[in-house]
Please model this.
Amino acid sequence: MLASHKDMHHVVILGSGCAGHTAAIYSSRANLQPLVISGHEPGGQLSLTTEVENFPGFVEGIMGPELVENMRKQAERFGATYRSGTVTEADLSQRPFRLNVDGEWIETQSLIVATGASARWLDLPEEKKLIGHGLSSCATCDGFFYRDKEIMVIGGGDSAMEEANFLTKFGRRVRLVHRREEFRASKIMLQRVMDNPKIEIITNHVVATVHDVEKGHVTGVTLRNVVTGETTDSEVDGLFVAIGHIPNTKVFNGQLELDNDGYIVSHGGARTSIDGVFHAGDVQDKIYRQAITAAGAGCMAAIEAERWLGAHGIH
Ligand code: NAP
Model:
């Protein structure tokens, strides 16, 4: 049953990473007064990074949290409203769409889903303190900081293979650590890793501890052999966790078309399987996962939402 609803909106944007903020900038400049629901990780994945050197326009780079905060201010300047909270329930079966934001129902004519994908981490207690300080989930973003350094990549899927290969451009050595003997990665990606003389593969090992929280950055890891239980310490400067991402689509399960991994299936441009619902950013993209591609996708979604509203006579 629906509780009382408070607001009706033209556009609601879910998520406040690069995609959500950019959608907010474009839709606010189209005078649609979007409401952005910030989500459980305001600022998205950029809020977890330190320096961003590949976002065009920042010659000297910019800190990730500052970049997303600037985007938010830019959107607010044009009339976007932000509300903290998460959507716990959604009813997309009819329009207006209904969203339960932490217990309160709101309604919207169109919806932009920019809820992103969260990197999967190892769930070690020290991990959170070291993210952005030698611990990363994105080689494209952070590899450059590890020129001639000791790099370790964790994972056995295509992402881990891709990251390990990419990181050999920088590190003096890349060690790839996987918890099993068999790899989930495609044969060709695994072969590329095996053929790369700068990569050393370590199977049947997991990370038991990441050092050194006291020093405030990664200095090494303790690995545990899952077969023998034996532990070994290794020096590491850059630890890249590439054990998958989890798209934040749980609330849309059974409503929006999702692929086997839970990502939104695109129906062309920014369209989803439901008319009036658009996707933006990592919630649909498991290939590029970059701030700039997410921002571009946010722009596309806002333009499509605006045109869709216009075509339906909703002003
Ligand atoms: P994935 O295929 O789900 O692989 C995740 C890997 O991390 C697995 O090897 C898994 O080990 C390991 N893992 C999971 N949890 C772990 C933990 N707690 N500790 C240690 N290891 C853990 O994820 P992905 O590599 O990100 O790929 C996701 C999708 O994107 C796939 O469909 C992939 O093909 C695609 N992709 C394609 C490309 C490309 O074609 N260029 C590049 C990247 C990704 P187990 O095997 O033991 O479960």
Observations:
- Residues 1-5 have pLDDT under 50 and may be disordered.
